[in-house]
Design brief:
heterodimer; A: alpha/beta; seven-stranded mixed β-sheet; 14 helices; 15 strands; about 40% helix; about 20% strand; B: alpha/beta; eight-stranded mixed β-sheet; 12 helices; 8 strands; binds iron/sulfur cluster
Amino acid sequence: MTEAKRKRCLLQGNEAIVQGALAARCRFFAGYPITPASEIAEQLSVQLPAVNGTFIQMEDEIASIGAVIGASLAGVKGMTATSGPGFSLMQENLGFACAAEVPCVIVNVMRGGPSTGLPTSPAQGDVQMARWGTHGDHPVIVLAVSSVLDCFTITVKAFNLAERYRVPVIILSDEVVAHTRESVELPLNSEVKVVDRIAPAMPPDWYKPYQEDARGVPPMASFGDGYRHHVTGLVHDQDGFPTQNPQEVEKFHLRLSMKITKGLSDIQLTRKFHMDDAELFVVAYGSVARSAMRAVEDARKAGIKAGLLQLITLFPFPRRILTPYLQQCHSVLVPELNLGQISREVQRVNQGQCAVVKLNRVDGRLITPHEIYNRLVKLSAG
Amino acid sequence: MPPSIQALTHTYFRHNKRFPHVWCPGCGNGIVMGALLRAITRLELEKDEVVLASGIGCSGRMPTYLDFNTLHTTHGRALTFATGIKLANPALDVVAIMGDGDATAIGGNHLIHAARRNLNLTAIIINNSIYGMTGGQYSPTTPFGSTTTTSVYGHIEHAFSIAELAVTAGASFVARSTVYHAALADQLIEQAMMKPGFAVVEIISNCHVQYGRRNKLGNAVDMLNAFKEQAVTVKKGSTMEEDELRDKITIGVLADRDLPVSTDEYKRIREQARSKREGK
Ligand code: SF4
């Protein structure tokens, strides 16, 4: 019955991110205009107030993520969207959200870098920055989108992971995904599975905002709902107050890591094409995964047993999903719009089991299916 | 009768594990904290309705000790977090507590834009002319010629006036006091919190440990007495020449104006957006 009411629409990736955010019940957006992410802000400025949400354009990216964290602490799901230079500015407060365990979503529509780089060209140069950009040693969740439909579903997923694990979640998009229009059929809001943070159930006096439990994710009270508590970016004890006690400091760090490790099977998302009998395969993400898919199909037609492992979750790096294929295949090709940021992860996991081959482009152009296909032909010839 | 210190302590302090506090004996931060609590008492605000957000620095630790919804953000960013909190839940009374370096150096951009934006927020800026917690380096309000750990040859930059900056940037309410004028400070904070729109209260405070000592200004009491000598009311100041005012501290209300408050204006936007959507 609901099927009949679904609408097919022609959307850009950026627009689908907006629809995904709204479906995930995002009700707050703060941002600063930047190419190629601006459409996200523009559309949310129209759509958020209509659903009782709030859009605000801040004075810079630092302020934007600060406001998003504030809104989340007051109980409202929030998001910001930016591109490379803006993402650089957000790193400090991103760390705050990790330390204080504040759910939020940050979209980085990658463009060429470094610095202002190539504002209107696609790139995948921010992969390791998403992982290690903010200081300190802590886990992160980074997801990559490759299609317009992805932009919708992965944005929903990002909000759900943020809420479930009380973490900021980073979505890496790129200029091609952001601005390509595709016809998609989006699920109705009623069909979208939405996860909300768990509110404390105990009386306020008993509430310990960072109490250790089996899941490692403490219930989260919002400012104003009667559970007065303290939030800080300093290392804190389970009551939320600054501590330098070595045992408490260590416990703080280990729990931040443990809560993500426990959720790996839920967090690590990949897609497999022709992987069952593959003898060589491609590891790709973002817009490059689209080229890779076509290349693999062409290779299959040419009788080459090629497969594609598309990474949706870049971090925590899906090591356990990748490993069996590294044992099964003689080569893995890692095409990227950078000089090898994920191939380094593949190398690390591979430990010399099969040949890891890079295919990189940093000239502001896409990697075409043909380029990947040619490499697959070469690799299959040995 | 104002509430006794004991009553304030019993009502508002977090007793469990939060003490001793990090401030040096005699620091003006405690006086500002007292003024804030007296203002909140007089306004009869529920603890659950109040959010205190601070930046980093000596003043930044204030929320830690008080039993409200409290937030200790990154350096200079208190107002950005406060903005998100207020927009997400406009029923909350959100107060940002910042130091001079916090609010006007790293956070200077946020301060002027918060003033221009005019959300219904209150900013309390404790101005002690120095970075206290990091060891006494010069700040945007360090007077020309003074000595700090990063200006041992005498400071060669010029200080700006926080309150006047806020007036120019468009805040609805701007006031200044010193920690010597503690009773005035709590009246001004009370007025600021009642004022619809962005309100700034600058409170000149003593950092006798990092600033006073290096500039031979004596102990905490000496510095407070100096504030008493330097203070002139807004009214008296208006009759004085620029030259006479140079070393004075103007105290009182510097701006009080009724401007559209964007926290309220946003309601109109929501209505417009809804009717546009329903009209489709
Ligand atoms: S260093 Fe200065 S501002 Fe900081 S607590 Fe001591 S006296 Fe107060």
